[in-house]
Design goal:
The chain is 29% helix and 22% strand. The protein has 269 residues and is an alpha+beta fold. Strands 1, 2, 3, 4, 5, 8 and 9 form a 7-stranded mixed β-sheet that branches. Strands 6-7 form a two-stranded antiparallel ribbon. Helix 3 packs across helix 4. It is elongated. The model has no long low-confidence stretch (mean pLDDT 88).
């Protein structure tokens, strides 16, 4: 369905920017637009079908009410005699960020590109992940965003303090082993005073330590030129696999040397 949709659509238009340019002063939020122009119609907003229908109805109401135009627009030939038969140039849409569904097709795509053999594999370098995501078919139509966000299952491998160098203060670190399909990777969370897990503060001056092997779901952020950032962690849902079982599978697949740092960290707990 998505492939058919992308083949059908030649361009995307940022409708909020379109409104700001051609309907100055009009609210850009869909609920406000519906109240203003389609108050006699009932829509289930935040439902894809009704959102599309509401946007279409608002579009036609807006354009039917406006009689004075300075040019054609990207979506409407307002006056063929005065401005010609051509639509205005379509400005390419650039997303500010994108969030992928956990276990969605985009994450399966990323996993298959990283690990086409589909065997358990520990990946030490995530530097090319952004460029892989930027090859998704959607980004043939819109510019890829500078920020990609997604969730991944994982396990805590170590929750500990690190002494700072020089004037740097001691800081808390939560080390994680996360996975996308059969791709495994290590990341770190640097919690601040507001960071919590299961309603407990993560800074170690509170006396709470997450046990090694605790399953978590990590919210991750990927930006160009930066390491993957762990935004937060929450209680995990993958309780069928334990950290020990995953490590054993990775060792069986030849990742025993790469796993030394993880197992050494566990031993120090």
């Amino acid at each position: 369905m998505e492939a058919e949709f992308l083949e059908t659509c030649t361009h995307f238009v940022n409708f909020q920017n379109y409104l700001k340019e051609h309907f100055v002063g009009v609210p850009v939020g869909l609920p406000d637009l519906v109240k203003l122009f389609c108050s006699d119609v009932s829509y289930r907003l935040h439902c894809a079908g009704d959102d599309a229908r509401a946007t279409q109805d608002v579009f036609f109401k807006l354009h039917s009410k406006k009689t004075v135009w300075d040019s054609n627009t990207e979506l409407v030939v307002t006056d063929k005699i005065k401005f010609g038969p051509q639509f205005a140039h379509v400005k390419r849409v650039r997303l500010n960020f994108i969030t992928y569904d956990k276990g969605g097709k985009e994450m399966r795509f990323l996993s298959s590109k990283i690990n086409p053999q589909l065997t358990p594999k520990l990946v030490d370098n995530m530097g090319d992940w952004l460029s892989i995501l930027n090859t998704l078919p959607l980004f043939e139509k819109v510019d890829p965003p500078p920020c990609h966000m997604f969730e991944a299952c994982g396990w805590v491998t170590r929750h500990h303090l690190v002494e700072g160098d020089g004037d740097e203060m001691t800081k808390t670190i939560v080390e994680l082993l996360c996975c996308l399909g059969k791709v495994y990777f290590k990341v770190k969370l640097y919690p601040d005073s507001k960071s919590t897990f299961m309603k407990r503060k993560l800074l170690l001056n509170t006396g709470f330590t997450i046990p090694s092997g605790t399953p978590v779901t990590a919210r991750l952020q990927l930006k160009a030129g930066q390491e993957i950032r762990v935004m937060y962690i929450k209680e995990g849902v993958d309780r069928e696999r334990t950290l020990a079982e995953v490590l054993a599978k990775l060792v069986d697949c030849g990742d025993d040397q790469v796993l030394d740092a993880i197992t050494a960290g566990q031993a120090r707990l």
